[in-house]
Design a protein that fits this description.
Length: 307
């Protein structure tokens, strides 16, 4: 009887050992499969789609780029990445991505998308040329209204600081622009590049909030009562009269642009300017004038490669 028991125990040990080996093999297969390039690629594409549904373009771009690193031949990653840049009206970057994708995949879908982007680029260049030519042909009309008509209108916005070409770039009613020369210079560069006339105006809250519910309404009135064209970009900055006495200044700003500026000052481009301005206005060590100067430099860096 003891011999039989001993043999049973041996069989049990052998079966257990085999089962353990099988478990190890299955676990290894699962581990390898779970970390396969195909699975990682699918995860990045899913991440990108999730970010897109939340309009989080920045993280969606990161996810698509990670997918391309995993599989340089992933057609969907190139198309998704290009669509983001098209949405942002960054057609140059979209074309670059699609050209890379075409070289890697030889995809007809990527080729068709690239042809669409090239058409958009051509249209953008044509519109930019039309605006610049229109600005050159009507430069006198683009300036302030005739002196006899505008003297009364602009008196409440004095003092005006005139640029070299006679147009006005800065209307600092409250004395917070401490860098007029360098700000004028960068705004002149903006005009030279785009054909759009910029103007920065500063006011106190009391200058407008008794008659207007919102600052944008005041800024709109300033635009239509000051300019006779649709080629100006007016930014109005406002703060309380006692700002110097406050620990936190509840400032505000609004931008108004003419209809003919739309092809260049797109929603995306204006957001670049606004984000830069807003960020610097929140910094204690950056003055109001410096914030505007930095914002114009930021948009110039982008426009230089797109206009």
């Amino acid at each position: 009887m003891e011999t039989k028991k001993t043999m049973n125990k041996k069989w049990i040990i052998i079966i257990a050992a085999i089962a353990a080996v099988v478990c190890i093999v299955v676990a290894a297969v699962i581990f390898v499969t779970g970390n396969s390039p195909e699975r990682k690629l699918a995860e990045q594409l899913d991440l990108a789609e999730g970010y897109l549904s939340e309009l989080d373009y920045e993280n969606a771009i990161v996810a698509y780029e990670a997918a391309i690193e995993i599989d340089p031949g992933c057609r969907d990653a190139y198309l998704g990445l290009a669509d983001i840049y098209i949405e942002q009206e960054d057609y140059d970057e979209a074309a670059k991505i699609l050209e890379e994708g075409l070289a890697q995949t030889d995809s007809s879908a990527i080729l068709r998308k690239l042809e669409e982007v090239e058409e958009l680029l051509a249209e953008k260049e044509e519109l930019a040329e039309e605006i610049i030519l229109s600005q050159e042909d009507s430069v006198e009309e683009s300036l302030l209204p005739e002196e006899e008509e505008s003297s009364e209108e602009i008196s409440e916005f004095a003092p005006w600081v005139e640029a070299d070409d006679g147009d006005v770039y800065i209307v600092d009613n409250i004395g917070v622009i401490d860098n007029e020369d360098s700000l004028n210079e960068v705004m002149q560069e903006f005009e030279d590049l785009t054909g759009i006339y910029p103007c920065v105006m500063t006011v106190y809250d009391s200058d407008w909030n008794e008659d207007y519910e919102e600052l944008w309404q005041y800024a709109y009135d300033v635009y239509i009562n000051t300019y006779s064209d649709e080629l100006h970009f007016l930014i109005v900055y406002s703060e309380p009269e006692n700002a110097a006495e406050l620990d936190f200044v509840n400032w505000a700003w609004e931008g108004i642009q003419g209809d003919e500026t739309d092809p260049i000052l797109t929603e995306y481009n204006v957001r670049i300017f606004g984000d830069a301005l807003h960020t610097d206005l929140l910094r204690d060590n950056v003055s109001v004038g410096e914030a505007f100067e930095n914002a114009f430099e930021k948009i110039l860096q982008y426009l230089f490669f797109s206009v």
